[in-house]
Amino acid sequence: MHYFVLFALIWALPMYAQETNTNRIREVAELRESFLFNTAVYPNPSQGAITIEGPEGSEVDLIDEAGRLMMTLKIGLEAKLEVTGMSTGIYMLRFRSDEGALTRRLIVQ
């Protein structure tokens, strides 16, 4: 019985480590992109108003879980978005500017 538990742990550990590393790599990539594009979305997750910061003159597309474009915001350096009436779930914010494009997740609770 003890050998089975030990085997299960040894077998599962590399998969857990790989998943953890993948999540960390994704987090580092998001931080790097946020720094390069100078973007921020807070508070995230949110139940009310969120602040969206991005490059001056950029546009931000709000995309739902089904991939539908819900709205486009043109922002100076900052914009406010009220998410109170939105369904709970994960949305995408696609920043577009002369510097390129960047997608960030927004979690509505």
In summary, what is this structure?
The protein is an alpha+beta fold and 109 residues long. The protein has one helix at 2-37, and strands at 40-42, 49-53, 59-63, 69-74, 78-82, 89-97, 100-108. Strand 6 and strand 7 form a beta hairpin.
Your description of this structure?
This protein has 109 residues and is α+β, with helices and mostly antiparallel strands. It has two domains: 1-37; 39-109, Macroglobulin (MG2) domain (Immunoglobulin-like, Sandwich). 33% of the residues lie in helices and 39% in strands. It has one helix spanning 2-37; strands spanning 40-42, 49-53, 59-63, 69-74, 78-82, 89-97, 100-108. The strands form two sheets. It has a four-stranded antiparallel sheet with strand order 4-3-6-7. Strands 1-2-5 form a three-stranded antiparallel sheet, with no helix packed on it. It is globular. It starts with a helix and ends with a strand.
- How is the largest sheet built, in terms of strand order? 4-3-6-7
Rg over CA atoms, rounded to whole Å, is 19 Å
Proper CATH architecture of the largest domain: Sandwich
- Written as H for each helix and E for each strand, in order along the chain, the element string is HEEEEEEE
Tell me, rounded to a whole number, the average pLDDT: 80
Q: What portion of residues belong to β-strands?
A: 35-45%
User: Which shape, going by the Cα principal axes?
Assistant: globular
**What proportion of the residues is helical, as a percent range?**
25-40%
The oligomerization state is: single chain
Number of H/I helices: 1
